[in-house]
Amino acid sequence: MGQLIEWAFAHGGGEPIFSRDAAVVPFVQRRKLDEFTRGFIEAALSMVPDDEGKAHNKSYDIADIVPSTLREMVDDCKDFQESNVADLEEYRERGRSDTDAGYDFFLTRNGHGAGF
User: Fold this and answer.
1) Which of 50, 79, 98, 109 is the most exposed place for a label (fewest CB within 10 A)?
2) Assign residue 68 a region: left if phi > 0, alpha if psi is -120 to 50, beta otherwise?
């Protein structure tokens, strides 16, 4: 699980990041996640392999992320968007979507050298 686990330990206090928890679905529905946050989560699920070398999105989806980790992801994305309004506007002016921006935020945050 590599970097996603590192993210969880750095940002989630070492709690597990995946769980078949029905509480996630109402949380996601209540929050109506924006495209930036969805892009961030998509990157987290698709870029980081699980213990068997498969991308998480082959084994897990957003409903499998532990609610506390998901809340931290949502909060981090919100904070980033609020702190970087001008940069995100310039990003959009270059024809990139908010989903792309969230994806790039995940890549940059995890040292992949892309994005912001």
Assistant:
1) 79
2) alpha
